[in-house]
Amino acid sequence: MKTKKWEENITCPYCEYNNKKYNVEKYGTCTRCRKILDEKAKFKYEMNVKLKLWRGKLK
What is the three-class DSSP state of 10? Predict the structure, then answer.
């Protein structure tokens, strides 16, 4: 049986939802209210989605 280890949560100051640290670092927004929590991560995610930077990379 797989056990899930305890993860750090980041609390949103707007809606007080406990977001997973991984989601905030990747997307930069709150999972519930979609407010921006991390400007830099949000910018990187938006540029990756809009410019489609993954197209030329091999997996």
Answer: strand
